[in-house]
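Z., the sequence and structure:
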Amino acid sequence: MSEAQITEPHKSLQHSLTEDAMAFILGTAMCALGVLFLTHLGLITGQTAGLGVLLSYLTGWPFGWVFFVVNLPFYILAWLRMGPRFTVKSFIAVAMVSGFAELFPKLIALDTLNVPLGAALAGAMIGLGLIVLFRHGASLGGIGVLALYLQDKTGFRAGWTQLAFDAALFACAALVLDLWLVLWSLLGAVVVNLIIAVNHRKDRYIGR
């Protein structure tokens, strides 16, 4: 999940508490549903969510708990780089995704799901869920925050940090997962990033 370049809405355009609440429910539910599709098929995704999925496969621990824990160290950087409002919103969003990820398997039973279609749909749901969260000044924490922090401190581009992390993550996944599952996982990750690249643009959609 790409998390860099989050933009807080202009003060005069900030959403109300009710609008934020509705968006958080929608955005986090879509992300968690995408993760449900991925884990049902044995796939992964990129960024911190992908790390959480891979660790849950390796340890047998629930994704929701793993995802929540792996994000904890990044909140310090988020506070320093993005400020308290963004950090609190991101903490809430991560907690909600973790909660939904634990709840949905108890409410939804998947029988037949084609792997390529499931990968693409999971990527679409996660990408759209992230867009909703980005528009309301939140993210799902993690590597994107670290990437922005390193960019500030060293000048190393945030996008390259995220790409390097995803490359390492998928390389590790290839050692423990079937190669075809890793390749279909890449399809889902590409869909996520395409949706964000097309829709999360300051020149088109983000208030200046």
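Residues 14 and 109 are 38 Å apart (CA to CA). The chain has a mean pLDDT of 84.

Let me know what you think.
H.
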